[in-house]
Amino acid sequence: MSAFFAFLHHLAFLTMTTVLTIQLVVLGQPLTLQSARKLQIVDRVLGIAAVALLIVGFLRVFYFEKGAAYYFHNAAFHAKLTLFAIAALLSIYPTVQFLHWRKSLKQGQVPQLAEQQRRRMRLIVHAELTALVGMALCAALMAKGIGVIH
């Protein structure tokens, strides 16, 4: 059972990485009706994957693996949670923008996206991906017992 939850945890992480990469690529191109819809869809997938990552991660901490005491006494674990929180907070801005597009998309119109907004969203997605890379590093450190607080 532990291996299955590890698989789900990794799958959610890879899904987040993939979806953010898709957002980055799509935001680097001129916005079309199709690409705006794609951004809305992948943003929903990102939210679902993030919730899955968090839930499965906490199930692993409390019911599988090394136990909660090990993780809560590990600096890398705290750093990983902090990076997750940063990525989650950063994702609010693009999500709100995508939600504002609903009316335009329902009317079959390409949403307005100012160049400054597009650049800001790309910068945010870059930062989110950087946070995920940091989370992967923290996970590797935790797996090797690095960061234990005595």
From TrEMBL:
**UniProt entry tagged with the keyword Transcription:** no
Q: Which keywords fit this entry according to its UniProt record?
A: Membrane, Transmembrane, Transmembrane helix
- Keyword Magnesium applies: no
InterPro entries per record: DUF2214_membrane
Q: Can you tell me where the transmembrane regions are?
A: 12-33, 45-63, 83-102, 123-143
What is the name of the protein in this document?
Answer: DUF2214 family protein
* Species name: Microbulbifer pacificus
User: Species lineage, top-down?
Assistant: Bacteria, Pseudomonadati, Pseudomonadota, Gammaproteobacteria, Cellvibrionales
